Fold this sequence. Notes:
Radius of gyration: 25 Å
Structural class: alpha/beta
Number of helices: 5
Distance between the termini: 56 Å
Number of strands: 5
Strand order of the largest sheet: 3-2-4-1-5
Largest sheet: 5 strands, mixed
Amino acid sequence: LNLAFIRLGILMLLRKLRVALALLSIMLFLPFSFAQKLIIASSTQYQKDLSKENVKQIFMLGQKNPFGLIPINQSVGNKARTIFNSTIVGLTESRLQSYWSQMRFSGRNHQPFDIGNNNDVIQFLLEKQGYIGYFLVDDNEGIPNNIFVVFSIDIN
Length: 156
């Protein structure tokens, strides 16, 4: 009788061990993701942080914005650009292209020029004064000292 209870105890322990190993193996193969932030930064130190609406104005008014900063975009298709357009501007890429076509056709304004990816924008901001751009960073990444964050938003 005691031997039967010992066997039952061992079987239950083995089942628990199998479940624990299965959970551990699943956790090991899940990709780890860091929280990301969309950073809107300037190459020129600005007196105060900008609001989401200020940033939208800068990018929608192009070089004719009242803040004196020249906006730069990332290339079409970049994750940062898609996130920026949807969270800050509130328009899809196709709607933005239509907007800028109308602005160009009427002679009122020109869209910000495209720079490339996150690293290209950071490098550009480090080299040129008076510009504003956006890029993604993981929480564990630093932002270069000569780039001034004027607005940020958590992505994850």
